[in-house]
Amino acid sequence: MPSDARLREVRLGIYATQQQAEEVMEQITQLLCPDPEHAPPCPIPWSVALVSELDSEFYPELVEQARIEHPQEP
Q1: How far is the C-alpha of 49 from the C-alpha of 40, rounded, in Å?
Q2: Which whole-number Å values give the CA distances from 53 to 14, 19, 24, 35, in the listed order?
């Protein structure tokens, strides 16, 4: 592993149903590891997680956009 390698985090905020979010997570997983049957370890260690709206403070503009575009939803 290169000497400058260290943990990085890429965040993606989306306004979606649980099912839509899971589909997006699956697509991202396939991008990161297109061959899930390969022998470990992956050349680039990675992890993916789905977090609920509890972390919405990271995306105030997305929350505002969703409020404007979907005013009937809570």
Answers
A1: 20
A2: 10, 14, 16, 31
Sequence-ordered list of residues with C-beta below 8 angstroms from that of 64, at least 6 positions apart, any chain: none
- Cis before 41? omega within 30: yes
pLDDT, tens digit (0-9, with 9 covering 90-100), for 38-72: 888 888 888 898 887 666 677 888 888 888 988 87
Render pLDDT for 8-30 as a digit per residue (tens, 0 to 9): 888 888 888 999 999 999 999 99
Which residue, among 52, 51, 48, has the nearest Cα to 25 in the 3D structure?
Answer: 48
